Amino acid sequence: MKIVKVEAKNIRYQSVMVRDGEGHSHPGKPHDAKVGFLTITCDDGTEGHAVGGNMMVDVLNRVVGPALIGEDPFMHERIWQRMRTWQRLHSDFTDRTLCAMDLALWDICGKKCGQPVYKLLGGYRDKVPAYGSIMVGDDIKGGLDTPEAYADFAKKLVGMGYKAIKLHTWMPPIIPEPDPKMDVRACQAVREAVGPDIELMLDPYHDYTRQQALYIADALAELDFLWMEEPMDEHSMSSYVWLTSNTPLQICGPETMEGKNRMRAEWIKADAADIGRAGTEVTGGITSVIKSVHLYESFGMSLELHGNTIGNLHVLGAMGIDGKYYERGLLHPMLDYETPKPWFKTIYDPMDSDGNVKIPDQPGLGWDFDFDYINSNLC
Ligand code: MG
Question: 331 CA distance to ligand 1 centroid (A)?
Answer without folding.
Answer: 14
